Amino acid sequence: MSASPSNRCVSHPVYISACWEVSGMIASTLNANVGYRVAQTGISCGGIEGNDAHKHPTHLTSFSGSGTAVTVGEMYFAKGKFFAPNNPTPSNCVHEFSHVVHLGNSEAFPGALINNTAVSSIGIILSKRVIQEPAHDGKPTTICIVQHTDYNPVTGTNIEFQMEYWCRPVRNLAKVQNLFQRGREMTIMGYVTGKDVARHMWQVDVYAISVATGAELKLSPDLSTPVGTKYFS
Asked: What is the pTM of this model?
């Protein structure tokens, strides 16, 4: 018997893609020569306001056989599901090892890692605030906290977490600020540029958004359901 719509867990995942520098190996759960392998890595950010450059530790996890694994000191490109609990538990990118691209030794890697971790996500807006930043001549920057929910295959449980998205009044986003409303389901694309370590919350600089046509979370009686999908790029 299938679950009723009211009992189904809505999936609002986050996917990230980046070039990862492997700094260590943590553990494996090999069973019959296959299992999850966990590597130490990090996400390099310049700070959401450009003044706090830091490499924030994360985990890189894949399901693979005993003869396949990433190597310490090497660089890899990988895309996967992102789980970022708002507590001291390390964030984790869970990816398919068969789609990993080996980029060579980290000492010889010529690319820039800061602010180059891409995000593609869907979630429910929990809160919204507006600020003015000097770099944008007093035009509003909309900051939203978005709730994400996804199934973590490593733990076998659904994980809920929140991330903070900054939508600045750049040319392609200046007229979409009002689309950010509490309770609205949105798809968001951008880059991780910071982390509020006190709240254990990643911060994303928004590059594109889309209003989803799915269900809204009714946080107040005056919210309206979106009637169509709009794309901005």
From this structure: 0.85
